[in-house]
């Protein structure tokens, strides 16, 4: 499997916190968010010295060639995905639930590889919702371990393929080691430019809008803005998707035949084209993705005009 790459990030803390909030907000900011952990610069060092293993199969000629019928000039910049149906996939095969999630990770890897080949700039995936905390403890723990493993195993790929990783959501609820791994990975890959993978963990659209409002209220309280200054642009600066140049998904795909958006990126999806696939997420491969993109390219986007 080309993506398999083991990397054990032993944190060697050498740089100051990458927390980039204005200093005037720091006392308040810490009441809203866990402090970001320091950048592990040893990670960057280790990554630049492990270039021998195979990355995924991304050849220069692939990035020039698109499947028949798919137009480069109409490619969505940002695709969002609700990766639904992992447990059903496992149950249908009499497998334990964890096998469904593991198969889901493989599917995600394939889709990331395709995005890089076909020139999609950003992929956002709903990996764990705020409501998923209410799932059985053993399942939640398994998912946390899967995030940890996935991020560690693929760290080298992200570097070699110039992939930026961003994580959005209420990370304060995650195990400390996972928080640190995520923040370090975000920091270490922040200058990568080919493609950005946004992983939504402990995330919901409600959470995102509420945390943005809290930040704006804080700024108003500090006298930095007037309540009447608040507009769409100021809101968007505070949403967690401020981590990307393309905050509004052009296309949302939900797998498994459900027709809901389930509290994912509520603000950001305002003008997004929706596509619902019957396949369960672990079965969603290149052919299905192509179908979704071709359907997207048939749509006329009017933005209410
Ligand atoms: C490293 C990384 C980002 C990993 C992502 C792993 C992954 C595929 C997570 C999906 C989690 C999830 C709660 C999916 C919803 O479908 P469900 O499993 O609840 O399916 P069901 O609708 O059949 O119950």
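^ structure tokens above, recovered residues below v
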């Amino acid at each position: 499997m080309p993506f398999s790459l083991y990397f054990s990030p032993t944190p060697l803390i050498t740089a100051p916190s990458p927390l980039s909030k204005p200093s005037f907000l720091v006392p308040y900011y810490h009441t809203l968010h866990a402090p970001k952990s320091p950048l592990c610069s040893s990670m960057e060092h280790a990554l630049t010295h492990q270039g021998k293993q195979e990355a995924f199969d991304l050849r220069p000629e692939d990035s020039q060639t698109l499947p028949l019928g798919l137009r480069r000039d109409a490619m969505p910049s940002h695709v969002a995905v609700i990766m639904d149906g992992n447990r059903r996939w496992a149950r249908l095969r009499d497998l334990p639930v964890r096998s469904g999630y593991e198969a889901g990770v493989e599917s995600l890897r394939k889709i990331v590889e395709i995005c890089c080949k076909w020139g999609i700039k950003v992929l956002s995936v709903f990996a764990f919702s705020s409501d998923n905390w209410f799932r059985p403890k053993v399942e939640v723990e398994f998912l946390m371990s899967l995030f940890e493993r996935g991020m560690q195993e693929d760290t080298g790929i992200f570097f070699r393929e110039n992939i930026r990783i961003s994580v959005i959501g209420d990370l304060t609820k995650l195990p400390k080691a996972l928080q640190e791994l995520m923040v370090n990975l975000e920091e270490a890959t922040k200058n990568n430019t080919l493609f950005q993978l946004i992983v939504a963990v402990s995330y919901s659209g409600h959470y995102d809008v509420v945390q943005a409002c809290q930040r704006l209220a804080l700024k108003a309280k500090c006298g930095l803005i007037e309540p009447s200054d608040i507009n769409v642009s100021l809101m968007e600066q505070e949403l967690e998707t401020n981590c990307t140049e393309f905050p509004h998904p052009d296309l949302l795909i939900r797998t498994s035949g459900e027709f809901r958006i389930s509290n994912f990126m509520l603000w950001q999806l305002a003008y997004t084209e929706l596509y619902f696939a019957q396949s369960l997420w672990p079965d969603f491969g290149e052919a299905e993705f192509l179908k979704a993109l071709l359907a997207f390219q048939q749509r006329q986007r009017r933005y209410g005009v």
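The first helix runs from residue 26 to 32.
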